Amino acid sequence: MMNKTAPSVTGTSPQRRSFLKTLALSFAALIIPGIVVARDKLDKVKDWVIGDGYRPADHRWGMGLDISKCIGCGRCVDACKKENNVPLEPFFFRTWVERYRILSNGETLIDSPGGAINSFRADAPEETVLRSFFVPKLCNQCEHAPCVQVCPVGATFSTPDGVVLVDAEHCVGCRYCIQACPYGARFLHPETRTAEKCTFCYHRIVKGLAPACVEACPTQARVFGEVEKKASPLVRFLRMNKIAVLKPFLNTKPQVYYTGFDMEVR
Amino acid sequence: MEELIQHLAPLVKEVVGYIYPNEIELHWGLLVVVYPYVTGLVAGAFILASLVKIFNVTELQPTYRMSLLTALAFLLVAPLPLLAHLGHPEKSFAIFFTPNTRSAMAMFGFVYAWYLMAVLLLEIWFCYRKDLILWAKQERGLRKLLHRIMSLFSSDVSERALRFDQKAVKAVTLIGIPSAFLLHGYVGFIFGSIKANPWWSSVLMPIVFLFSAIVSGIALVLLIYMIATPLRGKEMDMACLNKLASYLFYAMIIDFSLEILDFIHRVYESEESIEILAALVTGKLFISLIVVQLLLGMLLPLGAIAMAKMLQMPSDLKKMIYFVAALLVQVGIFSTRWNVVVGGQLFSKSFSGLTVYKTTFLGLEGLLVSMGLLLLPFLILYVLFALLPPWEESKVSLEGS
To answer: How many domains does chain A have?
Structure first.
């Protein structure tokens, strides 16, 4: 039977040919949306790997620091160390708080004992204190980051959402980035022997959470958010205050903004 | 980790003023001082050899091959301090395979490989090719084999081939001079391009590095010549010594002028960082910068060489002066590297305080390893001298073979 039908198939008539064509097209019509959907799914998987539908290119993160609100309690330093497994010894910090005391004789006392993880002691200097304020410090997530420029292997990089990260798997530990950072924001992790720094708690922000320091701050001196989106608290902060950045002359374009610090702050 | 913490804990008490808390650990220590010192010697020795070839300085002919071998011995050691200093030396190959092209440091691999492969080894090979073939003919056993291998089994000693060797040496030297400038100028650029650090950030840095390199290279070849010649029971060539001392003198004058220019420029511009830098120079760097680098390493040898040149004196006294001057120059240039590398990290980038650096004796970053790394090139040089004798009398003539 098979042998008999086979020759008749090879001798296709024009109608049969057009039928087969239509059939193929109909099948294609079934498959093509499938391919499109699959590609869409793949993108979704990619997003899902980073976070719940988080697309880095859709964001641009920054932080604002309100000097007048910071009380120097050091909760942010503590929260950061716990959240990011930063060694507890007082030589390694992703964030720290500095105290500035401007005396009547014009001198400025600056300190940050243990990064202020246990706040500050209320020791009064002999001279009268004219002004005193606290300055939280962290990686400035520079748009023109010198650390990214100098890394010989590209282990330090800027993400599309404006955060500077270190890929510990590629870091060779040459410490050039630490030298290049004008803000002292980097250190070499004593155990991994790779460069470390503030990541804006990247693992948290991709999930829609705020960085640990922001969460821990009791006075909302730290404002975290989108730099560009209108509804962001940071945009409001930038609009309502007189804004400065650290060492602007170095043209690093920090994305950490301050309001209310004095000229003594560097 | 425990060791590091124990090392850092007592340093906190020695900090003057305010430094950022992450600045207590000083990141580039003794090993990173050794690195530019060693590459400087390479560049300096090579430039000296090139002067001999390009300008046909006959007096310096006895030091030509010696300078090349010295450059090679030190170049082989140059990457070791860097490797020992890396947090992850096992990943160092990434600098070659996946370099960040925007990074000055990523160029290290290429500059180094270019200099070693395309310049130094080529020049030495063309320079020694004839001798290697002729030596191998007279020798037997292992030495013969080694010399055959080193000549890459070439055997053509026809006049045409030898003329080509000569031409090739000239050509490589011509490429070599800018390459040597590149090698050490590049090391200066690594520091000079760090805008975060006002002690380093200077366009003069590569040039100062280069001329201090030439100074240290000439002084080193002078020392090696003055030690090796009596050890071989030969007489030193006074004309050669005088010429070396003159070149050393000229290079030092340029180096000194550049450093003074840098100093005046800084003081005159008097930027934001001037106060902390002044505190640094007059305090923590006083001994190593003012006393060792400037007085002992620069002014004293400059004065001594000038005296030896101007006054009539017995040649033995002259030799003594040259020797001591060259030795002082080495100490001075090492001090220069120290003052740049370590000095640049002794003040806080907040410009509000000074920190300290204490070397350890043991450990990778310690004194012992650095001393070993400084001695290693001399060991290599000893082997090179044995395998590729650079002396005039070791050259064999074609008729003799």
So the answer is: 2
